[in-house]
Amino acid sequence: MKNRLKVLRAERDWSQQELASRLAVSRQSVNAIETGKYDPSLPLAFKIADVFGLTIEDIFQRD
Amino acid sequence: MPDWGSPVSQAKTSSAGVMGRGPGFWGGLMLGVYGIVAGLGMTGAVDGAPLYLLIILPFALVMPMITAANRRSAAAASGCLAKGEAQRRYMKRVALFSFLYLVVLGVMTFVLNGSDPYPALRVFLALPPGLAVIGIFWAIGRLMVEEEDEFLRMLVVRQSIIATGFALSAATIWGFLESAEIVFHLDAYWWAVAWFFGLGIGAAANRVRYGAWGAV
Q1: Which of B6, B148, B151, B155 is the mutation pick for testing A, counting most A CBs within 10 A?
Q2: Containing structural domain, residue A24
Q3: DSSP class of B134
C-alpha cells in the first residue's frame, strides 16, 4: 500500500518524532508506515487521517 | 502543545539518570566489578559459594542501569512513546527474574554438590530455577498484552514466533539424532536457552524486514 505520509508531514514541517507524539505511537512505527514496510490497522489509519484532517483515502492508496 | 526538544527538555535529557549518573556509568561499574570478581576467581583468592555470591551481587547494578536508561529515554522523547511503559516494565521484570534465577541456581548447585538430599528436597531445590525462567516467559507474554503500539507489538509477536520455530525445530532434530546415538544427551532446559537465542534471530529478522529490532 502506498501512502503520502512523508509529503503531508513535510507540508506541516513535522518531524517523525512529532507525528509519533501526535499519534501516541513510537517513532519507529511512523518510520515503518512512511516507508511502506508496515500497513497500519484500520483504527490507526483513522487516527492518522484525523491528525492530518483528511480522509484515509487521501493518505493511503492501493499499490 | 508538547515541548519538541526545547532547551529545557534538552537540559532534562542530559541530567536524567540515577543519582545523577547515566546508564553508561552503571553498566561500566557493573563490568568493572565483574572484572575484579573474574580476577579474584582466576587467581584463586576467592572460590566456592563466596565467589558465586560475588558473581550474583553486581547483577543488581542492572536495575539502576535500566532506570537511568528509561529516564534518559523519557526525557529525550519529551512525551513521545520512544520507549513505552510496557517495555520499561518488561525490562524490569526480565532483570528481576534473571537475578532470581542466578540466586536459586546457585542455591541448587551448592546444596546438591555439597550433600545428597531427600528426593522431596531435590524437587524443592530443582523447581525454582525453572520457575524463574517461566517468569521471563511470562514477562514476554505481558509485554505482548500491555504494549499499546501495534507496530512494536507485532515485532515482539514475530520475534516470538521465529524463536518458537527455531527452538522446536532444533529440539526435534536433536532428539532424533540423539535417538540414533549420533549426538550426546542434552538436558531439556537447553531448549529454553535455544528459544532465547531464537529471539535474537527474530530481532535480526525484524531489523532486516522492518528496519527495527523490536523490544526483546
Answers
A1: B151
A2: 2-58
A3: H
